[in-house]
Specification:
By secondary structure, the chain is mainly alpha-helical. It has one domain. The protein is built from five helices and two strands; from the N terminus they run ααααββα. Helix 1 packs antiparallel against helix 5. The longest helix has about 35 residues. The chain is elongated.
């Protein structure tokens, strides 16, 4: 029995683009509702730039993954700024050879927690955009190398 035929480059690119378009669907409202309100004022421009890039329905910006990465970077900085270590006492039953001991745990502000919860859709968009755009670039470069004369 013969297995399924491998995809052509064009079919693979169409699949990657379709997956990217699925990831892009609803991201603008996610950015407006779940990300922008929790970012510091001076970092909100990266969200506006990404929304503007996503608004172009005729094409996918070849720098889309850079715009998404800028938003992810701003989010991670805000999460780090809103996270602190808290000392938690260890119960005396668990201590050996000392009277008191402490452990630490990470505590996030409400804004940092909201941004942390908003990360997964944007991380998925970043991966999909990067894969689709880099695959297209590889095809273009390969065609250029084949027809270099």
């Amino acid at each position: 029995m013969i297995g399924p035929l491998p995809q052509t480059l064009f079919e693979r690119q169409v699949d990657l683009t379709r997956f990217l378009l699925q990831r892009m669907h609803g991201i603008d409202s996610h950015l407006i509702k779940c990300v922008r309100p929790h970012l510091p004022e001076d970092n909100r421009y990266v969200v506006a730039e990404l929304i503007e890039t996503l608004d172009d329905e005729e094409q996918i910006d070849p720098n889309l993954h850079f715009y998404v990465d800028a938003v992810l970077g701003a989010m991670r900085l805000a999460i780090a700024a809103g996270t602190r270590d808290e000392r938690v006492p260890i119960s005396s039953e668990l201590l050996i050879g000392c009277a008191e001991g402490f452990d630490t745990r990470k505590v996030r502000t409400a804004e940092a927690e909201a941004l942390h919860a908003a990360l997964p859709p944007l991380e998925g968009l970043y991966s999909a955009a990067r894969e689709a755009i880099e695959f297209a670039a590889a095809i273009r470069l390969s065609l250029h190398l084949l027809h270099a004369d």
